[in-house]
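Slide 14.
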Amino acid sequence: MTLQDISSFAAGEWIAPGAGARTVYSAVTGEAIAQAGNDALDVQAMLDHARSRGGPALRAMTFHQRAKMLKALALRLSEHKQALYDISFATGATQGDHLIDIDGGIGTMFVFASKGRREMPDGHVYVDGEIEHLSRNGTFLGQHICTPLQGVAVHINAFNFPVWGMLEKLAPTFLAGVPAIVKPATASCYVTELAVKIMLDSGLVPEGALQLVSGGLGDMLDRLSCQDVVSFTGSAATAFRLRSARHIIENSIRFVAEQDSLNASILGPDAAPGTPEFDLFVKEVQREMTTKAGQKCTAIRRIIAPEAQVPALIEAISARLAKTVIGDPRLDTTRMGALVSNAQKRDVLEKVAILRQEAERVYGNPDDFEVQGADADKGAFLPPMLFHCADPDAATRVHDTEAFGPVSTIMGYRDVAHAVELANKGQGSLVASVITHDPAVAREVALGAGAFHGRLYFNDRVSMKESTGHGSPLPHMVHGGPGRAGGGEEMGGVRGVMHYMQRTAVQGSPDILTAIGEKWVPGAQEIEGPAHPFTRKFGELRIGETLHTAPRTVTLEDIEHFATFTGDTFYAHMDQDAAARNPFFPGRVAHGYLLLSFAAGLFVEPSEGPVLANTGLDSLRFMKPVEAGDAIKVRLTVKKKTSRTDAYGEVRWHVTLTNQDDELVAEYELLTMNAY
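Slide 15: predicted structure.
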């Protein structure tokens, strides 16, 4: 049988397998299907190519341009999903598993593309936090900014998610403006290779921004610098070996680790048999044990339930597992496929033997189970196996040994505090789930177990129809955990992008900070435009362009009319004696929203023009009360511009209201959509 060559893409060329190539086997048949790896790969040339070509090309793009690229790549991958499905069956994954890996990975790219457009500037610098005032008169200020690292991100991915595992790292890396070298696990690298080819063939990726290593990395990690990042997913043992390398430590090279962990699921004391929560719990456990044949870093490894409910739970979970059809993943009837390889199958059985020292197997016999459409001995098939640990307090191996397959152990707890104690014995996990309808139970677990977990997933009858499941990391939320789980975080929206950027404190004058951050800072130069700013198109407006209005005197009649018209007759506006007793007011004062209305009346240009809509205001503050007889005036400044579509963009205006003594009365940011 001719083996398929799984190539690497290095320094702009596809490199076929060579010396040191490894054989890749089908998870379903056990037959050799491909070869991957080349010990002669020029890893230094790959790093140089990424740093000299890919990095500069990505950094020349704005965040929004990178986000648009991500969306276009996601669309291109979507067009080729069927090809990715077809090739992924050989990994042992079912069609349902493909939806998690392939569709989930593409969906993650769409989310980062959206967040890049909505939450990041259409520029090259990400401003982190508010201005820090470092001087009395505001001429010396501080600001934190984030800029792309000028190196390369090396992504070392696990075998279980050859598409999602790559894309959930690649999306924030590209959005940050950093090139990537992707190294998938060899056992499933043929799926990753196809996904990389689809993206490269699209012509959307700048030269040098994406490279692929199918096989080993050689000494690439020994050639990294302080501007590079290693992002790793896999076992704790491998992560320790890589991150503790002398070169990594000496150069303070960023190492983001997402490691397998002993994740737990807790059944709340209120979730007795017959409740929606009990049935939900059983469903979640069965799903997490069988999806991807249990080969998920977030899978439930420890089932923690009230002692009184353990027998009923064993019976219910076993009954549901018995309905799981194991077989060739191409069959429509199959609900659980094979493990990724026979080597992984042997590893799981070795770990199961360790667990049996402290737990009794109550469901699933690896020596006697049915497989439809395939040979159980030749393929990497195992049945789901449920264990019961009668003494979880004395046990150690059920809390530190993970069988990375369809294996989970149930144990009883006395009270919620004991459940938390057992969950925390995992010494750091990616996720723990709690199925309860009692908010007090949820709060106790959050306070007690939060420090040991990267994510806490609560579910009950209210959220069960829309919840995404215990084992589903979402691109909006952080994915990682402390201790055994690796101590890192991935995804989490813009938080994930920050792993590939440097946060820098910059200090200087308002004009300096305005120029660096592309965002007007109060105290910076004001620009007088050639016409009213509301008559100028998005592309014509300049950062710092400012309008100063004439004053308007606020009268007692204005205050009373506003109160009558709106129904807001709060005593501070209508009762002189009561208002005078309020330590914040000298007597009757104008409504804050009256002042905002008057401000709009002062700065708005009423004629039809490029301002399409007022979409809101942010950071509203009232600093000083306004009495009848005070005169207010407005300063309106273009603070920031963000392109939204080809037809219009968002303008963020800095608005201040001052009185006749030039004292600050109110301040806020106005958002408008302006036509190009």
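Speaker note: The longest strand covers residues 631-643.
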